[in-house]
């Protein structure tokens, strides 16, 4: 691509090239904001920056509960939440991420798409996607999720129930009798 040797200064108005050589008919291009052309096959294209595995989607906002805030009751909404303060009660944010920060202390049942624990949580977690307990995190309670990650150094005390997408909760685990009895025959 052709570039002028001395582009006009930004404070001077753009004027056509009045060169000393009268046979030159190519005017100097004006300096304007133009879209950057797509790289050709011979030019390497810049590689996109790798996405942070914990990055919140740019299209969604994230609410924050600061270090000095204490919330008692039910937290509901339709955006992701970062907790660095204290929450007691219940947190219901289906389809969103709940992150308990290093200073966060939560005594609540959490229902969300994804839960990341960096602080302390006492309560049951129900995540439609995943639960991450980081190395400084502490969780005391049961976990229901599709995936779970517990880093070295993390504290976890409770049960884990891994569920496939769409799998319903079935608490009734009654044994099925293969023998027939007179009482079973009378019910049939």
Structure description:
With 188 residues, the protein is mainly β. The protein contains one helix and twelve strands; from the N terminus they run E-E-E-E-E-E-E-E-E-E-E-E-H. Strands 1, 2, 3, 4, 5, 6, 7, 8, 9, 10, 11 and 12 form a twelve-stranded parallel beta sheet that branches. It starts with 61 loop residues before the first strand and ends with a helix.
Give the tags.
1 helix, 12-stranded parallel beta sheet, disordered C terminus, 188 residues, mainly beta, 3% helix
Helices and strands, with pairings:
Elements: E1 62-65, E2 70-76, E3 80-83, E4 86-100, E5 105-117, E6 120-122, E7 125-133, E8 138-140, E9 143-145, E10 147-150, E11 155-157, E12 160-162, H1 182-187
Parallel strand pairs: 1-3, 2-4, 3-4, 4-5, 5-6, 5-7, 6-8, 7-9, 7-10, 8-11, 9-12
Oligomer: single chain
With helices defined by DSSP (H or I, 4 residues minimum), what is the helix count? 1
Number of strands: 12
How large, in whole angstroms, is the Cα Rg? 31 Å
Judged by helices, strands and strand pairing, the structural class is mainly beta
Shape: globular
Which band does the percent of strand residues land in? 35-45%
Briefly, what is this?
The protein is 3% helix and 38% strand. With 188 residues, it is mostly beta strands.
